[in-house]
Amino acid sequence: MHTIRSLIVDDEKFSRVSLKKLLKPYSQIEIVDEAADGVQAIEKIEASKPDLVFLDIQMPGLNGFEVLRALTIKPKPQVIFVTAFDQYAVKAFEVNAIDYLLKPIDEARLQQAIGKLNDNGRAIAEEYEKIRQFILHMEQPKYSLPHIPLRRGRRIVLMNPADIHYLRSEQGVTIVVTQSGEYWASYPLAEMEGILDPQIFFRTHRSTIINLNRIKEIVPAQSGVYDVYLNDTARTCVPLSRDRARVLRERYNF
Hints:
Rossmann fold, five-stranded parallel β-sheet, 2 domains, single chain, 254 residues, alpha/beta, five-stranded antiparallel β-sheet, CATH 2.40.50.1020
């Protein structure tokens, strides 16, 4: 029987211990590690590359959805969400055929979820895309998001959006420039635009988003295009396209 290397993510120690006890009868499930918060989860999943993750959704800091979106490893692990969501949200899981366990975990439901796991212990691309689309649907814009997970080398940093100067996309990678230097985000620029507060962050160009509080001056360039200079020490200049300039002019009446 194929061994399924598994990792448990839950901020409550009691819940992790309880799930491990429930999993003991399943000899094919090998618990390789556990994590108590979102940042730790990302680090441990990417380090141990498990076949399966039991992923709590409601955690302080980064929730389970944000953990899954931030993962960069390939192939992706299979995921069984663990949730205390209300019945409306659970219905959304069922409609989208996403595996979940409702707290407190029912043994029969656990058996059913494990029985549906792929023999190869890995999520196929179609399944992961289904999960990704489900996450985008479930997560409403959270403009009060207190921290955003950013990366520098092997480090994961929870950044206060107020400390972000601007974001740019380079060859599909989202670079985030902050007071403490450059980081990169796991999310495409378009998704970052949906996460950040639209009253503070503005898309100036298809490849650039700026923090409006960091603008020093806006200088006309040519044919309705502008250069936007930021108030950082590098006096960064970012382009403001003609279409986006029209939107910004309406906001600031210039």
